Fold this sequence. Notes:
The chain has 179 residues and is α+β, with helices and mostly antiparallel strands. It is 55% helix and 12% strand.
Amino acid sequence: xxxxxxxxxxxxxxxxxxxxxxxxxxxxxxxxxxxxxxxxxxxxxxxxxxxxxxxxxxxxxxxxxxxxxxxxxxxxxxxxxxxxxxxxxxxxxxxxxxxxxxxxxxxxxxxxxxxxxxxxxxxxxxxxxxxxxxxxxxxxxxxxxxxxxxxxxxxxxxxxxxxxxxxxxxxxxxxxxxx
Length: 179
């Protein structure tokens, strides 16, 4: 069995573990080693940075781009920046102080009291899904656009109508509340 392969770019014999899988190649491995592929990616980005950022910005303006970000999360650079910020001691100290402020706790309690019917309706729907009276939202499609539903919309928060809900995707749900 072969234990090494020669990289097409750097012409160095390397272990098979240093090559990515590629089913279209005869041996099932990429013709360039991981280090060369990584360097090629960096070089390409450096050469085309403005075009890539412009394309990314344009892509975000489309529904498909926003959906991809909703589905897969933030862009990696934003994730890393947020993660680093949340790990900092300054942020942790601010968070510790903020959580225990009496005015924040009072505001949270007030928000709960003001929206108590909404919370109770939400819990009723959640319990209905658990008990099997309603299908999980992941198995529903949006009633307006036909895409994967992201949540249930209540027409009324009165107890008699708690389970009178419509499955909507997040975009249609937001549009419904904004209009």
